[in-house]
Structure formats: C-alpha cells, structure tokens
Amino acid sequence: MTSLSEEETRLWGYRLGQCLTKGCLITLEGDLGAGKSVFARGVMRGLGVAEDWLPSPTFTLMNLYESGRLPVYHLDLYRLADPDELAVIGGESWMDGQGVCLVEWPGNGGDWLPPERLEVAMAAPSPDREDERILRFSAIGEIARQALGRLRREYGT
To answer: Lower Cβ count inside 10 Å, N or C end of the chain?
Structure first.
C-alpha cells in the first residue's frame, strides 16, 4: 500500500493497532527516516496507549507502555552492538504473549525472531516524494494472519 504523508503513515499504524491481539509481534523494517517510529506511534495509539509523548527507544532499546488495552513493548535495535545485549533488557520476557511487541531494526538482533510475526517493510519510492511511503505487510503465523485479515476487512487494504 502507499501512504502519501506522515499523518497517513501514522493512521495506518493506528488502524493496525486496533486490529491487534495479545501475542502479536510486529517488525518494522526500512532505512533511516522511512517512518518506522511514526508507524509505531500510530500502532500504540490504536492500542489505546495514553502517554502524551511516545519517543523512539533508540537510546534505551526498549520502552514498555501499560496504559492501553494491552501492554506494548517497543524496541529499537538500531544501536544494538551485539545481539547478546537483548538478554540485558530482559531477553524474551517481553515476548510472553500477554502484550504486543513492536521491533524496529529487527535484523540487528541476530536470529532471535520467533516464527510468528507481522513484518512491515517501509520505503520511500523516490527522493522527490519526500513524505510518500510504500508499506508492505507480510504475515508469518496464525496470529499475524488474523491481525492482517482484520485490517483488510476493516479498512480494505
């Protein structure tokens, strides 16, 4: 799908957030500035996260939000120097299936990804269309397929 603005990218994140259930893992991939954090903020709003400011956890690796209908674990692995550092922030405890996990730069975490996930790849189609983004959704596993199916039924994607 194509998003024509930052606001629309956030809106698609919001819509996806409304369709998620506990146990969903969403990976966000794309170059710097592709809109991963914008999309993640939309997902959190769709899940009802009430915090006024939702920073990207670039310097903390992980932020936990518990004010929505499900706990949200937001990880940004951009600055992860070694995949073993994931153990320092609780390892896979944030993957307990009770909340939603959003992971930016998942490839920096090595081969830790579980088999069930919804992959969202984001890219700018060209430098002259600064705010436009191409969003590609790939569901791997039943939980992700159900979430993507709800998004399609609700919003015709």
So the answer is: N
Query: Is-contact 120 137, C-beta < 8 A?
Result: yes
The sheet with strand 25-29 has its strands ordered as 2-3, 133-140, 117-123, 25-29, 100-104, 72-76, 62-65
Q: Beta strand 72-76 with 100-104: parallel, antiparallel or unpaired?
A: parallel
Question: Is the full-model pTM beyond 0.85?
Answer: yes
In this predicted model, what pLDDT tens digit does every residue of 14-31 receive, in sequence order?
999 999 999 999 999 999
Bridge-based pairing state of the strands 133-140 and 2-3: antiparallel
CA dihedral 54, 93, 86, 133 (to 10 degrees): -40
Closest Cα to residue 12, out of 20, 56, 125? 20
Contact 109, 80 (CB under 8 A): yes
Q: How does 83-95 read in b/e, with b if 16+ C-beta sit within 10 Å?
A: eeebeeeeeeebb
